[in-house]
Amino acid sequence: MNPLLQGEQAVLGAALLDPRQLDGLDWLEPRDFYRPGHQALFTALRKLRAEGHPALDTEGAVPLAWLSDTLTEAGQQVRGLTASYLHTLVAACPRPAHAPLYGRMVLEGSIHRTVAEHADRLLAVARENAGQHEVHGTTAQADVLAGVLDDLATRWGTQPRATAPRAPPLPAAVEPPAAAQTGDEQFLLSLLVHQNGAIKEVFDWLRPQDFAHPGHGQLYRCLGALHHRGEPIDPVTTLWEVQRRGLLAKGTLTEEQLAPVLRDGAAGSAEWLGEQLLRSSLTRAAAAVALQITAHADDRRLAPGQLIGHALHALGPLEEVRARWHTATSPPTSQPRPDTYQAARVQAALARSPTRPGTRESPTPSHVPPPAPGPQRVHKHTSPHHSHRSPT
Questions:
Q1: Is 253 part of a structural domain of the chain?
Q2: What's the distance, Cα to Cα, between the start and end of the chain in Å?
Q3: pLDDT for 294-319, tens place per residue?
Q4: Number of domains in the chain
Q5: Which residues pair with 382 in a beta bridge?
Q6: Is the CB of residue 248 less than 8 Å from the CB of residue 258?
Q7: Are 261 and 190 in contact (CB under 8 A)?
């Protein structure tokens, strides 16, 4: 038994038995139906209703023309629909008055299906971009998924709010890093150890979880701790920090993995290498998010509001990586010179200040002293830099 199929048949049967039930199904769309034949039938029913079919004003039994015209209209879109199938739809509807509830079942199935489809697209794009060392397609598809979730929340009548699942999600299957990727991470770590001050280029936006190899991430954490404490970074201090954290004793790192980093020097741009690692981290995060959302969509126990909230929550880690990617790739913002900034503030303040009544601006430069006042009251020319004063 397929509950979703029966729900689609029931709502169509209700509209065939009682055309006026379509008045309460304006929020349901043909694309919400899974079967193409059902989409065509619902499209035909809505079209006949919009055209003012006579069956809408008929009291009592529905005229046969309502069924035949629906079949004719739907037959122009898909093939294979027969009059006997319409009778099957009618028989599948227990109560025509329950059409809104049947329609809600159809919409619920559509939301689960739509979320799963867009999660699959994000996964495919992320894997493709990972092979091409690109991220723009991944970020664009993530934005599409977020927009779809907002639209679905509006249609379901809930707020698009991220909610964490009660049980922590199962970790997504992580593919082992390729040899080339492991080599790039090892090269960057070696550069950070042997090149004085290199960690400053990546410390603000590169994180241990951006490394595909867990041991490399923990080693980078050691370097970050040394930098945070203001201690020098070299092979000796790095080995000492690794020992203090027990990475060798726990098996997180092996001597074979650590020795090349401490022994072999490296030269290059830490910023460029860090960006490549962050690029790979973003596509990996997108793939993991897509798998997690797919698992939520396959859980039919989740109501649409819960599914949308869990999916938005799953997008959180990806947004965090995107924010750091934006920081790493954005050009530095140039700060204005203090004197220029102060002058701009003064000019803006003067522009907002109204001119006092009885005064007018003077073309005389502010550095020219005004004439000395005589025994009588003298009205001086004023400028925005001089206030009007009168001798007592």
A1: yes
A2: 102
A3: 999 999 999 999 999 999 999 999 99
A4: 2
A5: 361
A6: yes
A7: yes
| Residue that terminates a domain, selected from 278, 308, 331 | 331
Query: Which structural domain, as residue segments, surrounds residue 59?
Result: 3-94
Cα–chain center distance at 187: 32
CB atoms within 10 A of CB 58: 14
DSSP letter (8 states) at residue 174: P
Residue 18 CB contacts under 8 Å (≥ 6 apart), including other chains: 62, 96, 97, 99
The CATH number linked to 206 is 1.10.860.10
For residues 238 and 220, give the distance between their C-alpha atoms in angstroms, rounded to a whole number.
10
**Size of the chain in residues:** 392
Say how far apart CA 292 and CA 310 lie, in whole Å: 9
- What residues does 361 pair with on adjacent strands? 382
Query: What are the φ/ψ torsions at residue 109 (nearest 5 degrees)?
Result: -65, -35
Cβ atoms within 10 Å, residue 63: 14
In a domain? residue 156: yes
| pTM tops 0.85, yes or no | no
Check whether residue 79 and residue 143 sit in a common domain.
Answer: no
pLDDT of residue 281: 95
Number of Cβ within 10 Å of residue 101's Cβ equals 13
391 domain residue, yes or no:
no
Q: Is the dihedral of CA 177, 181, 183, 188 positive or negative?
A: negative
Q: Are residues 52 and 136 in the same domain?
A: no
